[in-house]
Amino acid sequence: MGEIMVRNVEGYFSGVIRGLAPAVLMLTTFLGQTVPSSASPELPPVILIPGLEGSALADTNQPNVWAWGRAEGRAHFADLQWPLDKDDDPRFKTAGVLSTWRIGWIFGFSAYEPIQTFLTRNYGLERHSYFEFPYDWRYSNLKTACKLVKYLDEHATDPSNGESLKQRIDRTGVILVGHSMGGIIANLFTHFRAPIGTATSPRNPCPHQYKVAMIISLGAPYLGSLDVLKAFVDGPNDLYSHLGVSKEKLREVVYSFPSLYELAPSYDGCCFSGPNSANI
Fold it and tell me: What is the Cα Rg of the chain in Å?
């Protein structure tokens, strides 16, 4: 599969989105080491993969009705509860990466806007090398990594010449910038790369041949997150109180997300419980 450079920038994990402005400096450093000069026509595509809660979710049949990402989404948050015994939930679709995270009608704070601005200015616009991959963050990361394969299969790089991302990546490779859970998705996507003709399997549900030049992960919890364990033990934090649902309903909704269980910590010595502090 060849050597893939993986950079993991610590300090920007978000179970809830936090400011990412410092990460722009890291991106400038890391991308500058591998991306050709501005004069080169063969710039590798750069794809931003946001983290948990980093994509807006809207009603599939009513695009103006948001369940996550806008202040008015608070009235529909309970609808995000994952349907029992289902592998898919077509009721919602993604509505873009969140530039700003709204706490209420008035208050909010910057989410991915600094990174989006930097990448658009340096790799987007006429260079057609910056793309965003919003996704429904409730899904299993395995499914989302497969959706990334489909996104690359279908997405066009430049409407003027119709060249697909697949054709471009065959020549240059692709740079994946994954924040938090987005880093896990980028890692899974990379592991799904396999020779032509490889059959699907539980360990590789969507084999592909995309060449990954670099993964830049911003605080990706590859071994799980204690924040997630804390949410299971103590319940979601008070930042969600603006959603206008009871704590019981909030637990019911959040605990239904398949992705959350995949973020539970999975390393030795991470967690202790009981009077004798038994390792769990």
Answer: 19
